[in-house]
Amino acid sequence: MKSIKNLFLVDDDEIFTFLTKRTIEETRLVDQIKIFSNGQDAIEFLEKAAGNTELLPEVILLDINMPILDGWGFLEEFILLQPTIGKRITIYVVSTSISPFDLERAKSISGVSDFIIKPITKAGLINILGSLAPDNDPQ
Amino acid sequence: MILFTAGAGYEAVNFRPEQVTGKPLKDAVSPHTIEFLHKNLSGILEGKTLTHEVFTRGRYYQNIYRPITDQSGKVEGFVMVALDDTENKKKALEIKRHNELFAIGEELANIGSWDWDLDTRNVVFSSNTLRLLGHDPNVLERSSQEVLEWVHPDDRMMLIESFRQMLDTGIFEVMEFRMIRKDGKMRIFQSSSTRSLTKDDQRKRVIGVLKDVTEKRKSEQDLLESKEILRKIADSIPGLVMRYVESEDGSSRIQYVSKGAEDLWEVTKDEIHADVSIVWNKVHQDDVMGFLRSFKKSRNTLAPWNHEFRIVMDDGRVKWVSVIGTPKSMDEGRLLWDILALDVTAKKTAEVKIERNMELLTFQNTQLLDFCNIVSHNLRSPLVNMSMLIGFIEESGDETERKVYIDKLKPVIEGLNETFEEPVESIQVQQDREIKSEHIDIEESYAKIIAGFEGQIKLFNANIETDFSEAPVLYYPPKYWSSILHNLISNSLKYRSPGRRLNITIKTARTQKKVLLTVKDNGLGIDLKKHQNNLFKIRKVFHRHPDAKGFGLFITKAQVEAMKGRIWVESIPDVGSTFFVEFHNQ
Predict the structure, then answer these.
(1) Spatial CB neighbours of B98, under 8 Å, sequence gap ≥ 6
(2) pLDDT tens digits, residue range B494-508?
(3) If you count Cβ atoms within 10 Å of the first and of the last residue's Cβ in chain B, which end, N or C, has fewer?
(4) What ipTM describes this predicted complex?
């Protein structure tokens, strides 16, 4: 039983994305996983896919520390983009940071559902993705 | 009935004899006279002669009533003679009034008078004199001997000697001596006297006045003492206390300067008295402008003058001085200045120290936050990856799969190693605050640096122009300078535009005590709207360039700021970037 069609992983750390993709696949809760290595690539994709619910993700796992456009930059642009997207997207900030400043900052942004400190475990993923079950979601 | 009137009575009573003769007495005399006669007529009729003073119609009269007897001796009437006594009466009253006035005057002025008869050797005092001396004011005449005993024993000889001299020479002077009152209290008296030769009896007399000056002398003494106290206080203040008058033409006259001025300014009071400018001439060269500005402002507005400045001693030592002054406007455009200057060197030194410590703390706090960031992101990332990889290795049963995970561990460890080296290097810059500056020949050092880029310059066909003519020498730690210039050139080469030939212009310029380095290129540029805040931070990368690590500008900034310099950038995406580095204290 797969509940999530699309999940975006936005992170420049290749090893992390490789391993996390694996873990998500093992949960069998997600159909498709797309990986972006920085915020700019992800935003550009979302801009193009606006209104196309098939291409748009239900969930984004977002890293903070990335080149070109970091997680904070992505969130700023995402908030501007949100009204034109036409789909509810849940964003989790996933970071190695244990800095309380980063945690505070993430919490202050309304579009962020939660702040997850890496590493992300299989059990943790099931917990997060399970809460986004289709029974609760009209889509 | 009046039978007869005669004599000067006409003028005296202002009526004619024929008007009253044969009329009743009451028509001719005043009601006072009638009243007197009512009371005393029987006495007159018994043969007594009576007199009576009457004041009527503005004049004094002496009325004499003498009985008239017939041959048998029987009284048959009386004669009334009215004498006009007005002039005598007036004189007597005037003398009385004068004496009263004199007595009142003596009392009010706290003075007494005396009259010394050199023949009888007695002194006649006014009653106020005796009151001042505390003796019975009714016994006016006293012997010389008694009076001398009232004088303070220590002053007696002086007094006798003075009088002898004055009588000999005929020159009378004002004397001051102490007297003991009857109640034992000591008072100070001032005596002025003069010899008088009365015409009446030709006796020799000395007359004079005594004045009690005890209170006056006491307040003068108090004033002198309080002046002395003020001077002592002013002198004991460890600083300069000065009062001086400044005339409109700029000249000045010192009224007072304290002893403390000698210690603080290291000049003598005499030198200051001779020329006040010795005080202001010691103001530190760099503080003169501010000093004059604040002083003139206070002079113009008459507001209190409050200023801190440095003074330089003859041997070059510098002291910090805090001055408070109040200007007061006087006549003819003159100004009275009261000035207090204190040595605040110790306080100032402490302030500078605190300021420096604050600066250091702020700097270190920023570094700490940066370091927290490095630990959070750059050091934890590889650790997370390693722990995840280990987890996968443990769970995997497949040997080939395990091999894949193990292979991935290696670059993670290498990355970790690299991440460690960077913060260590930057911390070294921050700790290396004592690094020595040297005079660097910019042209020479540039040649060495550019030699390292020779291969890349040829490969990209880059064009580099330099102009170090305006500022050919830099005073800076050579290690930092090389690193800064190396990084900026390296950035220009790295982020060149693929669409055009790379041009780099490197210049130095001088402004006062600063040298400005500019490195301008026509490369990719940076979107400053997006990246302004992160530009000089560690691990911030803005280009899709495989060599971008986000460390060069971070370390460059550290090397600039460690020497109190400034670095900033102007850039337009896809047009180019210009980096500016300002080196201070040149």
Answers:
(1) none
(2) 899 999 999 999 999
(3) N
(4) 0.81
